[in-house]
């Protein structure tokens, strides 16, 4: 029997929970190389409370990556360095190898999981340190600092107030640039049936691979044992490849160039690094700073980031201890100006990329070259290096670059830098 009467009213929705508010002196957003490096430096600053916000487990958390850099050793990262190489080698397109010993520098590898575990342990032991798993939704200036609006894994909102916020999350798009290339790569962690590698020698660039119509390509080999290595195929070009194309290039390199024979691919990694003369803003607000690739730490001409991130992290920690609010630039103006010229010369094809980089290793003393690639050489040293490059194409490009317009490009599919 049907009962008449007023329609039953739908249940009122539950009110949204009021966000809790917590405070720290410093909030670091992102757990990549830049965020972890800054947290690592700040945990030794007892006067500051530090909250590191990392995404919860799920699709936003990247897979394990490797980060490489050269250093003299004896630093505070020694315990997370998983491999190092005292000898560097470059293979020219003509097949001739250039082998250099850059002592006291060594080329070093850090795995992201080891670095992450190390920094998390430091935060856990630090009275003012904290690791928060949450999604950072927005960051805004407020009187006296900034507020980060987060969502916890439970779905509840949380507001973090801080005097300083350092945002290391990858940029959603790249600023306008005169030249924009991509360094894109795929790597195999391989195990061979016999001993094929010299664990002392890192092959930074091996140009014995087929070169693309535009840009350049090279192999990259970091031995981890006589029968294990990270082997990569890398391109500097305008567009990325398909996974099948990377796999084919890696197969050719391992089989036909390196002659590795039977091997097992134990793990892969892949990424994209912007190589651009764009001007990356270092501030997103009065109290909000960008660090890492988003703040311009990636060296435009090489894609190296990790060493610049370490320098910047030390400088930021020192500035906060001394009560200064300035964020130092990751690279000097001279280095960026030279990179803009080199990127343009590569993009236009005025210089041959394999010959250019091989020539640097053949003609420049190795310690000076590594300091040049890190942006720590003097003007006189840079002048001497410039004389060892193709003079006429570089001079023509140097005259042209200041008059080129900066244009926006479609955003790249970003991967975290491992170099």
TrEMBL record:
Disordered: annotated segments: 1-24
A Pfam family reported for this protein in Swiss-Prot or TrEMBL: Lycopene_cycl
Acidic residues bias spans: 13-24
SUPFAM superfamilies xrefs: FAD/NAD(P)-binding domain
Basic and acidic residues bias locations: 1-12
Name of the featured protein: Lycopene cyclase
């Amino acid at each position: 029997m049907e009962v008449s009467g007023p329609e039953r009213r739908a249940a009122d929705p539950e009110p949204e929970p009021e966000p809790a508010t917590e405070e720290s002196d410093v909030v670091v957003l992102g757990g990549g190389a830049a965020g972890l490096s800054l947290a690592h430096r700040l945990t030794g600053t007892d006067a500051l409370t530090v909250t590191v916000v990392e995404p919860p487990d799920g699709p936003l958390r990247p897979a394990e990556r490797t980060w490489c850099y050269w250093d003299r050793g004896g630093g505070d990262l020694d315990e997370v360095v998983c491999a190092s190489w005292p000898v560097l080698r470059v293979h020219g397109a003509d097949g001739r190898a250039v082998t250099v010993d850059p002592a006291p520098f060594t080329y070093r590898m850090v795995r992201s999981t080891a670095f992450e575990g190390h920094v998390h342990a430091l935060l856990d032991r630090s009275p003012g340190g904290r690791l928060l798993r949450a999604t950072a939704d927005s960051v805004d200036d407020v009187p006296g600092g900034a507020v980060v609006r987060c969502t916890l894994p439970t779905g509840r909102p949380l507001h973090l107030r801080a005097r300083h916020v350092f945002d290391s999350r990858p940029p959603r798009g790249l600023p306008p640039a005169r030249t924009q290339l991509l360094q894109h790569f795929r790597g195999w962690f391989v195990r061979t049936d016999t001993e094929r590698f010299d664990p002392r020698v890192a092959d930074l660039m091996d140009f014995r691979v087929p070169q693309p119509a535009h840009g350049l390509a090279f192999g990259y080999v970091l031995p981890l044992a006589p029968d294990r290595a990270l082997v990569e195929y890398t391109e500097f070009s305008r567009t990325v490849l398909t996974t099948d194309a990377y796999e084919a290039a890696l197969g050719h390199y391992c089989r036909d160039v390196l002659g590795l024979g039977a091997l097992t691919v134990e793990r892969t990694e892949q990424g994209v690094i912007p190589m651009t003369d764009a001007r990356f803003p270092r501030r997103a607000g009065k109290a909000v700073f960008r660090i890492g690739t988003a703040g311009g730490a990636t060296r435009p001409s090489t894609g190296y980031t990790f060493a610049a991130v370490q320098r910047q992290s030390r400088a930021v920690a020192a500035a906060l201890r001394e009560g200064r609010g300035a964020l130092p630039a990751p690279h000097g103006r001279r280095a960026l100006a030279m990179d803009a010229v080199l990127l343009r010369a590569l993009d236009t094809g005025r210089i041959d990329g394999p010959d250019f980089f091989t020539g640097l290793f053949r003609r420049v003393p190795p310690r000076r070259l590594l300091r040049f690639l890190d942006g720590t050489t003097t003007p006189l040293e840079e002048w001497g290096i410039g004389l060892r490059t193709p003079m006429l194409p570089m001079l023509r490009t140097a005259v042209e670059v200041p008059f080129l317009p900066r244009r926006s490009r479609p955003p790249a599919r970003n991967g975290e830098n491992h170099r």
